[in-house]
Amino acid sequence: MVGRSWHRGCPVGRSGLRLLRINYWDYAGYRRRGELVAAASVVRQMAGALADMYRAGLPIRSMYRVDRFGWSKRLQGADDYRSMAAGNTSAFNCRWVVGRPGVRSPHTYGRALDLNTWENPYLSRQGWEPNSWWPSRSHPRAAWRSRSHAVVAIMRARGLRWTYGTSDSQHFDAVPPGGRPVVVPGCADVVCH
User: What is the pLDDT, as a whole number, of residue 11?
Assistant: First the structure.
């Protein structure tokens, strides 16, 4: 992580983060073991939601720690562009918002989860990331465009809010029990990934 997804100046120290290793079903129906890093205050919520997806047979394309994708100079953190293009599910990444240099991403705090990023693109100021084919499509198991989708319902039941709807369908924010959502300056009226 050091020098990629975590670096000096991050608002969350490494002691405030946890490594989550969890089973998931891939798109071919094989059981895999994935890893992601999340804030200690919400890692149980994320683990519960991902375990519920596993029990429901809802697939995840891939789940690797985001530092696997290298450093991004333009994001000043791990390369989220490469992670999204790989369809990777991830959480903590001390970086800037995609397309907004100098603005910290909600992922910087370890309380945001991006899920099945290839099928659930993000609308940045430069256009759809990582692809423009999926935004108008849904899939009953892997791509959601409404609050009634099974994945959105599972996340909501575990305290992960689907915050941005169809312009950032991959993104969920975890609110710890009795806690408050992370407020990111400059992100109140715009989508911040």
Answer: 95
> Which residues of the chain are under the pLDDT cut of 70?
164-166, 179-193
**Distance of alpha carbon 50 from alpha carbon 70, whole angstroms:** 25
For the packed helices 150-157 and 43-55, what is the interaxial angle rounded to 10 degrees? 140
pLDDT tens per residue, range 95-104: 988 778 888 9
Cα–Cα distance, 73 to 86 (Å, whole number): 19
- Per DSSP, helices labelled H in 108-175 are 150-157
Asked if 121 and 134 touch (Cβ cutoff 8 Å), the reply is yes
Residue 47's nearest CA partner among 183, 182, 159 is 159
Give the whole-angstrom CA distance, residue 103 versus residue 12. 16
pLDDT of residue 190: 39
* Tokens 């599972």 -> residue: 154
Residue 171 tokens, joined: 């993104």
Distance CA 66, CA 35 (A): 9
